[in-house]
């Protein structure tokens, strides 16, 4: 059942700031709570002052936090804008973002159902996003990142201008020229350190991961590909399908990396059909052995889930670490 619309189930400071970003007053907004996870969410309808019936003029998706100040939504907005630098990318549009008070306003995607072509189209569009963002202006529609948000975007580097979040976990993105070193230290090594700090990494698991880290160059050095813009948290809950059956990407943990790392998350929890991968390869074929490498890349996400949600993920983490050690 859809929750009843209310005037402002949010702190007054957030409601007023959101209204200002939309060019109206707080009284001109109707909020429909959608639930909460790591943040609060709502559909917000802007009502036309001239419309006595209160019919909405336009709808938005709003996320906010109860924290006094946080950069999390401004960083998420930067990730979405990075992906959207590829012309025609299937990425929801950012309307406004703030750190104080912390909120994010996105265009509303009216819910629809997946059609026969949804998965193949999503695969094709993701491959196009990856390919064109790796070329950095090399052809029409390619990403031009220089100057975005006033940040430095060194060509040929892996990382992101700022650290961001994978769920509630900080994701380290310091620039690196070497993909293997980046994945070793900023991804697997960082997750292992978090598990150690929380007293979860037993000696059996530590040995397996440390052995894998030593051999990582033998596992993922090939294929040599340029960094491209990754969604970073690409599971089925992070896209929305509109009434036309087109999927739109949301909730990224964006960085510049190798594309197989992005595809790895699609294999963990279902929701991506064979048509998705077929569509992807129509646009940018993957190198031989890619399916084997995806499970190794998925270890990063499995370790993050262990850090976030507990011991239920230990056995999967140990199995993958042992396989590639």
Q: What about the largest sheet? A: 5 strands, antiparallel
Main-sheet strand order equals: 1-2-3-5-4
- Can you tell me the overall shape? globular
Encode the helix/strand succession as letters. HEEEHEEHEEHHHEEEEHHHH
Kindly summarize this structure in a few lines:
The protein has 325 residues and is of the alpha+beta class. 38% of the residues lie in helices and 17% in strands.
What labels would you give this structure?
two-stranded antiparallel sheet, 17% strand, five-stranded antiparallel beta sheet, Aminoglycoside 3'-phosphotransferase, Chain: A, domain 2, alpha+beta, 325 residues, Phosphorylase Kinase, domain 1
Write the layout of secondary structure elements.
Blueprint lengths: L11 H10 L7 E8 L3 E8 L8 E9 L7 H13 L9 E6 L2 E6 L10 H18 L28 E3 L2 E3 L7 H19 L5 H12 L1 H5 L7 E3 L8 E3 L5 E3 L5 E3 L1 H6 L9 H10 L6 H20 L4 H11 L1
Antiparallel strand pairs: 1-2, 2-3, 3-5, 4-5, 6-7, 8-11, 9-10
Helix pairs in contact: 3-8, 4-9, 5-10, 9-10
Q: Mind explaining what this structure looks like?
A:
This protein folds into two domains: 12-107, Phosphorylase Kinase, domain 1 (2-Layer Sandwich), CATH 3.30.200; 118-324, Aminoglycoside 3'-phosphotransferase, Chain: A, domain 2 (Alpha-Beta Complex). The chain has a five-stranded antiparallel β-sheet, with helices on both faces. Strands 6-7 form a two-stranded antiparallel sheet. The N and C termini lie far apart (48 Å). The protein is α+β, with helices and mostly antiparallel strands. A hairpin with a 2-residue loop joins strand 4 (94-99) and strand 5 (102-107). Helix 4 packs parallel to helix 9 (290-309) and helix 5 packs parallel to helix 10. Helix content is 38%, strand content 17%. Mean pLDDT is 91; it is low at 50-56.
């Amino acid at each position: 059942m859809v929750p009843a619309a209310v005037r402002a189930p949010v702190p007054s400071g957030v409601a007023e700031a959101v209204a200002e970003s939309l060019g109206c007053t707080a009284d001109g907004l109707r909020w429909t709570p959608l639930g909460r996870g790591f943040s609060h969410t709502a559909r917000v309808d802007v009502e036309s002052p001239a419309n006595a019936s209160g019919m909405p003029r336009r709808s938005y998706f709003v996320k906010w936090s109860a924290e006094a100040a946080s950069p999390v939504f401004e960083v998420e907005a930067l990730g979405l804008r990075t992906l959207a630098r590829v012309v025609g990318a299937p990425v929801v549009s950012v309307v406004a973002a703030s750190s104080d008070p912390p909120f994010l306003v996105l265009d509303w995607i009216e819910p629809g159902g997946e059609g026969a072509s949804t998965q193949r189209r999503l695969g094709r569009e993701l491959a196009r996003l990856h390919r064109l963002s790796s070329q950095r202006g090399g052809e029409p529609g390619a990403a031009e990142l220089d100057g975005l948000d006033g940040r430095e975007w060194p060509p040929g580097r892996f990382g992101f201008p700022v650290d961001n979040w994978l769920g509630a976990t900080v994701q380290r993105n310091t620039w690196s020229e070497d993909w293997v070193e980046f994945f070793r230290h900023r991804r697997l090594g960082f997750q292992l350190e978090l598990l150690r700090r929380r007293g979860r990494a037993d000696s059996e698991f530590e040995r397996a991961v440390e052995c894998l880290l030593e051999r990582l160059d033998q596992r993922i050095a090939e294929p040599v590909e340029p960094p491209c813009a990754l969604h970073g948290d690409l599971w089925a809950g992070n896209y929305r399908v509109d009434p036309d059956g087109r999927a739109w990407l949301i909730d990224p943990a964006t960085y510049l990396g190798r594309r197989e790392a992005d595809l790895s998350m699609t294999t963990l929890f279902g929701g991506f059909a064979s048509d998705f991968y077929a569509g992807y390869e129509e646009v940018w074929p993957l190198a031989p052995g890619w399916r084997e490498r995806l499970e190794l890349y998925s270890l990063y996400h499995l370790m993050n889930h262990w850090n976030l949600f507990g011991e239920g993920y230990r056995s999967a983490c140990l199995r993958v670490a042992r396989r590639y050690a």
